[in-house]
């Protein structure tokens, strides 16, 4: 029996989503095959890395952070500082307008709170092409409306349930959000704390998008792992271990199909960047990273 | 397909209240209505029946038998209540249900032999619900052998392959069909049944019917013998009578992977086609599956 | 592409005579397919059919065992491309590379390290499995000495013998002993004849190396023709993208095409793909996820091997079964009689999240883990496994009451609604509704739960 490479091509294609504005914008997704599968399809955009900045830490971390290709602002905890919604929105806009790279804004995760907060942020950052979320089934209507009005992209979040992910995407498109303005967040758990669930959810979404050509799952995937990884004791008790904890989690999700990774440690950021630049060569002359 | 009406169920408030008050009227009304709807058996679901199960079952069987001539399927996990019911059933009754769990083998299966009743045996065993067709086959073969040894013939065994909701696990729904296809070869002569409405558990209420109906067509084609159903789903009864051959054929086409020109179809036909595609696992399930192209 | 009962039933006699112990031939076919019966159990098979069956029933990817005894590592016999399709079965072996050029102390240190680097997680012992002994000194005697040293001082740990010099490799095999099943590496186009001859006499697993998947397949075809079936594959991938390609193509060929020459597990060398330590760890991480059978690492430190071991555990966890932890009272931060008591379910992730937050809080406390068959709090509650009656009977049998002087029990915020019932069931106890999310636990414990 002669060897014949078992090449598989897929009928589906992941949407290409643009975040940020103008010259500073960048594109994610757009692939026609599984992660790293240059040998059988196109992967026009390598996975993008975002560095997480919280409002509290924004100042001291700003220098390193601003070298990142994307900044992710986490608004969680701003309430605890006693800031009101208008203040938070204004502060966010100030940062967004000063960084010169595309910005992801993650709200508090509390559906009720975000229902009020995120539309205000959307308004204050009008035209900046934010990637804004998390949008959940409880609050998608209000946030979707604001995103449409002020020209942002959405992060649709559903916890580890592919069917629910699809359903939320359908609801968002019914609100008038086009599929190239949605990014899927299937909830990412850290290594050792349920990573395998997120890993398999991402693989299932990617396969549905590519092999089954499921239009409602063809959005790029985001893995927001910085906070998850650095809250575990294995990371807290040992920095070097923490970097690998975050790095391994990140790489696993890249292999499972994540298109954007939100990291917390600049060291992890550089490490993953190095892996991507050294190991994702367009080695067989197909169109690729 | 032989249909078993599921509507007399303790989970329904009216029924539990009637049972508590020993008020025959609401129960007899339901029994009559289901009989008129055209089902072949009536399921009497008492649930776990922990307290007072024996007396409840006796009363329930008597009450229903006064109102309907249909044979009964007695549905409780309490073997004492089960026996109390079996003892007074007019016709050959159906035990709903036994399984491969040790406890069930010891307490339920002997009742089938003693009262020469039919018995629904599910593929559940002490290790849980098998995850694929092969696992189901393995589990059920063992339980069937045990049942045979107890003197229960294959003709009296109604295999329940256990149906999980399509919103939970589409693959399982497909595996179910694979299993039903092999059942006749595995254990010649056995019958099969299923709690059909399980398929649409977790699906928005107004959409449950079409899922159940489509699946009935599909498993019927795979050789399914009977199903426990909502007796008041008129369209379901009508499909089962063979009155909607157009729909039935369309669903068969989807099963065969034929290309269907949906443009020429009515919206109802399109819905059946979309539903069948979801059940076949060709499209990932979402609550809005009927709204997608 | 594991064979199905339906694929083989037509090969059986079809008389349903029951002599195999199954009620029907088809039943027997199902047993055969699941590996729970042998063709021999049916007395009516003609020899040719039996052979066909045996061929059909052979797993599409062979199981290969390296080392002998309790510490042996078995890899291969995988059935799927993606873990959600079923599960991954045989986790890759981690091998620590030792070069014969290293000093005595370095070598002793590495042997010591692979023994000592063991971790416990949910009652599972996590550790690296193998030593890879690399001939780099150019002095055969030196290499043989290393091999002998390992054979005596670490006789329980399986080894990979690595040498481009075939003479040295075979000498090492003799010194080590083929009966202990070391993995001989590499078999290449140049030495395949010689090695084949040699190991016909002294069977042991071999690692086949060539520049591409196709060339690897050509070599394994030769080995198989010579009756050698204990094989692992190395398509010599140079970077992660190549590795993903090669590993994917190998597995697809085996599982989806039933291509026997590639129906073997693989060996991978992140240690040779980069000089940088952290990068090497991440390459290993990628290879664990993408089908490696053996992962050879240049070094192992606690902070690098532990996350890889956890990753391996995660990726090879059976998704069909929820991970559970043992039902018992866990003591956190050395609690005393006054320590607060939290009860929750035995779903491993629930346990991890809760115990980790309790540790972070630094508050000495007890964590009572109740067996809910691996369901999380909400699922366990809704299926009746974590309700007032099951919790109360667990608390009574857990023995927690003897360890504390108070009677305050914290329940997860998600089951706040059972507080009343639970108080009825446990009249001596005061039930306190705790945080909904584990992240709320430190704050709750630090504030001092108000009894
Ligand atoms: S012994 Fe052979 S012929 Fe007889 S039932 Fe078993 S498989 Fe069929």
From TrEMBL, chain A:
Residues 16-275 form the CO dehydrogenase/acetyl-CoA synthase delta subunit TIM barrel domain. InterPro entries: Ac-CoA_synth_d_su_TIM-brl, ACDS_complex_subunit, Dihydropteroate_synth-like_sf. It comes from the Bacteria. SUPFAM superfamilies: Dihydropteroate synthetase-like. Pfam families: CdhD (PF03599). This is Acetyl-CoA decarbonylase/synthase complex subunit delta. The lineage of its organism: Bacteria.
TrEMBL record, chain B:
It comes from the Bacteria. SUPFAM superfamilies: Dihydropteroate synthetase-like (SSF51717). Keywords: Methyltransferase, Transferase. The keyword Membrane does not apply. Gene3D superfamilies: Dihydropteroate synthase-like (3.20.20.20). InterPro entries: Dihydropteroate_synth-like_sf, Met_Synthase/Corrinoid, Pterin-binding_dom. GO terms for molecular function: methionine synthase activity. GO terms for biological process: methylation; pteridine-containing compound metabolic process. One of its GO terms (cellular component) is cytosol. Residues 1-262 form the Pterin-binding domain. Belongs to the vitamin-B12 dependent methionine synthase family. This is Dihydropteroate synthase.
UniProtKB/TrEMBL annotation, chain C:
It comes from the Bacteria. PROSITE patterns: 4FE4S. Keywords: 4Fe-4S, Cobalt, Iron, Iron-sulfur, Metal-binding. One of its GO terms (molecular function) is iron ion binding. 5-methoxybenzimidazolylcob(I)amide binds at residues 344, 350, 374-377, 438. Residues 1-59 form the 4Fe-4S domain. The keyword DNA-binding does not apply. [4Fe-4S] cluster binds at residues 17, 20, 25, 42. InterPro entries: 4Fe-4S_dom, Ac-CoA_synth_d_su_TIM-brl, ACDS_complex_subunit, AcylCoA_decarb/synth_gsu, Dihydropteroate_synth-like_sf. The lineage of its organism: Bacteria. This is Acetyl-CoA decarbonylase/synthase complex subunit gamma. GO terms for biological process: acetyl-CoA catabolic process. It comes from candidate division NPL-UPA2 bacterium Unc8.
């Amino acid at each position: 029996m002669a060897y014949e490479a078992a090449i598989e091509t897929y009928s589906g294609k992941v949407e290409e989503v643009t975040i940020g504005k103008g010259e500073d914008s960048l594109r994610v997704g757009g692939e026609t095959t599984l992660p790293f599968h240059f040998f059988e399809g196109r992967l026009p955009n390598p996975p993008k890395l975002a560095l997480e900045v919280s409002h509290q830490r924004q100042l001291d971390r700003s220098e390193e952070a601003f070298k990142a290709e994307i900044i992710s602002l986490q608004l969680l905890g701003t309430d605890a500082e006693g800031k009101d919604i208008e203040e938070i929105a204004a502060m966010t806009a100030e940062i967004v307008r000063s960084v010169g790279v595309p910005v992801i804004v993650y709200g508090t995760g509390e559906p009720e709170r975000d229902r009020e907060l995120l539309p205000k942020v959307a308004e204050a950052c009008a035209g900046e092409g934010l990637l804004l979320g998390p949008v959940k089934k409880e609050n998608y209507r209000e946030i979707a409306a604001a995103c449409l009005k002020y020209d942002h992209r959405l992060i649709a979040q559903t916890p580890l349930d592919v069917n629910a992910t699809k359903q939320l995407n359908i609801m968002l498109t019914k609100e008038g959000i086009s599929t190239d303005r949605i990014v899927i967040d299937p909830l990412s758990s850290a290594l050792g704390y349920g990573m395998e669930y997120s890993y398999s959810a991402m693989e299932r979404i990617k396969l549905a998008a590519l092999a089954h050509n499921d239009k409602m799952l063809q959005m790029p995937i985001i893995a927001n792992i910085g906070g998850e990884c650095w809250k575990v004791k294995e990371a807290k008790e040992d920095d070097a271990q923490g970097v690998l904890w975050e790095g391994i989690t990140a790489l696993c999700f890249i292999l499972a199909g994540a298109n954007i990774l939100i990291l917390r440690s600049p060291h992890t950021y550089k490490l993953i960047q190095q892996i991507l630049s050294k190991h994702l060569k367009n080695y067989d002359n197909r169109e690729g990273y | 397909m032989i249909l078993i009406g599921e509507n007399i169920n303790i989970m329904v408030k009216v029924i539990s209240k009637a049972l508590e008050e020993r008020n025959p009227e609401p129960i007899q009304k339901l029994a009559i209505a289901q009989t008129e709807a055209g089902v072949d058996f009536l399921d009497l679901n008492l649930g776990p029946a922990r307290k007072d199960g024996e007396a409840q079952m006796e009363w329930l069987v008597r009450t229903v038998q006064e109102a309907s001539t249909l044979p009964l399927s007695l549905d409780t996990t309490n073997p004492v209540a089960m026996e109390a019911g079996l003892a007074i059933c007019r016709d050959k009754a159906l035990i709903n249900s036994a399984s491969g769990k040790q406890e069930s083998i010891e307490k339920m299966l002997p009742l089938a032999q003693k009262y020469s009743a039919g018995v629904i045996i599910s593929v559940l065993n002490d290790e849980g619900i098998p995850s694929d067709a092969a696992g189901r086959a393995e589990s059920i073969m063992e339980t069937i052998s045990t049942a045979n040894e107890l003197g229960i013939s294959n003709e009296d065994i109604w295999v329940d392959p256990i149906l999980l909701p399509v919103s939970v696990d589409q693959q399982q729904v497909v595996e179910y069909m694979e299993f039903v296809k092999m059942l006749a070869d595995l254990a010649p002569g056995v019958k099969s049944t299923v709690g059909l409405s399980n398929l649409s558990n977790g699906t928005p209420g107004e959409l449950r019917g079409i899922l159940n109906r489509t699946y009935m067509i599909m498993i019927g084609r795979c050789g399914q013998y009977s199903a426990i159903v909502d007796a008041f789903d008129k369209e379901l009864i009508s499909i089962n009578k063979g009155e909607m051959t157009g729909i039935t054929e369309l669903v068969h086409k989807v099963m065969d992977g034929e290309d269907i020109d949906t443009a020429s179809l009515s919206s109802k036909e399109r819905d059946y086609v979309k539903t069948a595609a979801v059940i076949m696992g060709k499209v990932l399930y979402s609550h809005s599956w009927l709204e997608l192209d | 592409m594991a064979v199905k009962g339906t694929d083989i039933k037509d090969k059986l006699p079809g008389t349903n005579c029951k002599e195999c112990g199954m009620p029907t031939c088809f039943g027997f076919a199902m047993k055969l397919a699941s590996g729970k019966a042998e063709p021999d159990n049916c007395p009516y098979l003609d020899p040719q059919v039996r052979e066909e069956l045996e061929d059909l029933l052979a797993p599409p990817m062979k199981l290969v065992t390296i080392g002998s005894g309790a510490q042996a590592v078995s890899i291969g016999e995988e059935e799927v491309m993606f873990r959600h399709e079923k599960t991954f079965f045989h986790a890759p072996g981690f091998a620590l590379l030792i070069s014969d050029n290293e000093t005595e102390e370095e070598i002793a240190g590495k042997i010591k390290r692979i023994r000592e680097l063991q971790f416990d997680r949910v009652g599972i012992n996590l550790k690296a499995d193998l030593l890879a002994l690399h001939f780099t000194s150019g002095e055969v005697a030196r290499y043989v000495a290393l091999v002998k040293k390992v054979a005596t001082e670490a006789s329980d740990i399986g080894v990979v013998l690595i040498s481009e010099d075939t003479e040295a490799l075979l000498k090492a095999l003799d010194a080590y002993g083929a009966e202990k099943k070391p993995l001989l590496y590499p078999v290449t186009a140049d030495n395949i004849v010689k090695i084949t001859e040699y190991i016909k006499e002294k069977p042991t697993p071999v690692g086949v190396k060539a520049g591409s998947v196709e060339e690897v397949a050509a070599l394994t075809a030769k080995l198989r023709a010579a009756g050698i079936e204990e094989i692992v594959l190395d398509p010599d991938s140079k970077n992660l993208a190549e590795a993903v390609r090669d590993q994917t193509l190998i597995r697809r060929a085996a599982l989806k095409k039933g291509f026997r020459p590639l129906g073997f597990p693989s060996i991978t060398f992140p240690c040779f793909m980069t000089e940088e330590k952290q990068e090497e760890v991440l390459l290993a991480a990628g290879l664990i996820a993408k089908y490696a059978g053996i992962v050879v690492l240049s070094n192992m430190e606690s902070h690098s091997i532990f996350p890889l071991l956890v990753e391996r555990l995660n990726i090879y966890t059976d998704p069909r079964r929820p991970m559970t932890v043992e039902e018992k009272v866990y003591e956190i931060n050395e609690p005393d009689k006054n320590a607060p008591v939290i009860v929750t379910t035995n779903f491993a992730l629930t346990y991890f999240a809760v115990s980790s937050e309790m540790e972070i809080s630094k508050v000495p406390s007890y964590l009572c883990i109740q067996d809910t068959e691996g369901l999380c709090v909400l699922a366990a509650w809704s299926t009746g496994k974590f309700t007032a009656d099951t919790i109360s009977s667990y608390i009574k049998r857990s023995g927690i009451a003897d360890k504390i002087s108070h009677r305050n029990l914290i329940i997860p915020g998600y089951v706040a609604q059972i507080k009343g019932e639970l108080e009825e069931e446990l009249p001596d106890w005061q039930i306190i509704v705790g945080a909904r999310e584990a992240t709320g636990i430190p704050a709750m414990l630090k504030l001092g739960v108000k009894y």
